[in-house]
Amino acid sequence: MADRITAEAEEVTGIGGIGSSILIAIRSEPGLLIEHLAKQQNKSQSTIVRAIQQLEQRKLVAKRAGSDRRTIQLILTESGTACAESILNAREALITNALTPLTGTQRSQLERMVETILVDLVHHPKDAYPMCRLCREECCGDDLDCPVERGAASKER
């Protein structure tokens, strides 16, 4: 399913590699710093800088000076926001189609099982982002409503 979601994101946007997850990250956190993005994506800063340059060339991402002028914040352009929404909509459609054969009761059971599994899959707080890199974060509500965030929080202690 993850491979299908990634392939669909690439097909819908024409962006390969980590471009889709970068757009979703900036959508979730406008003003994200390149350094933070590199840690989130578990990539070197130079890899992120190259990816950002490609997204800038496509007019999907823009840079602005950070609060201390030594940092650079990343924001989505109008086109970048539309592209991120397309990625999330394609993901949602794939998941909805995959769940079509299930009854309402089966979906509820699956949801409870998947939540339990997701909490347990997080072995370290840094494990959380890769699991959520193409998620529509607002669906989870507050951080601790998200099973992945709950798993990460339990490992911080």
Counting DSSP E segments of at least 2 residues, the number of strands comes to 3
Main sheet: strands, sense, barrel: 3 strands, antiparallel
Radius of gyration: 17 Å
N-to-C SSE series? HHEHHEEHHHH
Mean pLDDT: 88
Residue fraction in strands? 5-15%
Q: Report how far the terminal alpha carbons are from each other.
A: 32 Å
Specify the helix fraction band. Answer: 55-70%
| SS field, number of helical segments | 8
Question: What would the principal axes of the Cα set say about the shape?
Answer: globular
Spatial strand arrangement across the major sheet: 1-3-2
Derived from helix and strand composition plus strand pairing, the structural class reads mainly alpha
Query: Spans with pLDDT under 50 lasting ≥5 residues?
Result: none
Please name the defining characteristics of this protein:
three-stranded antiparallel beta sheet; 62% helix
Account of the 3D structure:
The protein is mainly alpha-helical and 157 residues long. The protein has eight helices and three strands, in the order ααβααββαααα. The chain has helices at 2-13, 19-28, 34-41, 45-57, 78-99, 104-121, 128-132, 147-156; strands at residues 32-33, 61-65, 72-76. The chain has a three-stranded antiparallel β-sheet with strand order 1-3-2. Helix 6 runs parallel beside helix 8. The chain is globular and about 50 Å long. The two termini are 32 Å apart.
Short description:
The protein is mainly alpha-helical and 157 residues long. The protein is 62% helix and 8% strand. The protein has helices at residues 2-13, 19-28, 34-41, 45-57, 78-99, 104-121, 128-132, 147-156; strands spanning 32-33, 61-65, 72-76.
